[in-house]
Amino acid sequence: MKKIKENILGLSFLLSIPLINISYKLLNNADRGVYSLLTDIDRAVPFLKIFILPYIFWYIYVLGGLVYLCFKNKKVYYIALASLNIGLIICSVLYYYFQTTVLRPELVDNDILTRLVTFIYNHDQPYNCFPSTHVTTTYIVMKGINAIKIYKSFKLLTNIIGILIILSTQFVKQHVILDLIFAILLGEIVYKIVEFLSNDGGVILKKKIISLLTMKKKLEN
Questions:
Q1: Contact assessment for residue 167 and residue 93, using Cβ atoms and an 8 Å cutoff
Q2: Is 0.70 surpassed by the pTM of this model?
């Protein structure tokens, strides 16, 4: 309980995620036109309903990973959270200007796994695909976990689960391969920039801006 009280302010910033995700719901349609990025690779990828389990586990993975980072390393937590929010905002902008869709398989079975896939399909329209927020957010949490000092076995487990979640977007036919690739690139670039700015890079950038402004004033005078 004491730990929670000490981190309550940091944890409160997690509310930024559902606030940003309001745009996801508003944009999840084909009102602005829609494109398909389906490739031969995607056609060759089989539908494997077992992967709905890691796909759904994403909800626990991202939230749990961020909470864990908050308790373990505040600096890395804020880097990961800021990167995640920026990534979600960029995704929303792309969804607005370049909406894509995914061709979903017809579900005929009635087992528990198929019902879980049906549940996801019914509650998430086949839009807002490029890039995948599932992949971007998972990748950023993985980056954060890998940046802190913890048991190697725990890091390995976290990475394995993260990879399974990323792969699940393909096997449950929620995304195509280009959604995945661009999402990882987006997560990597945003995380690196935020990390750079939060370290010495931010100080250097600030000094350069001040230097440029000072030089501008001298030229004007």
A1: no
A2: yes
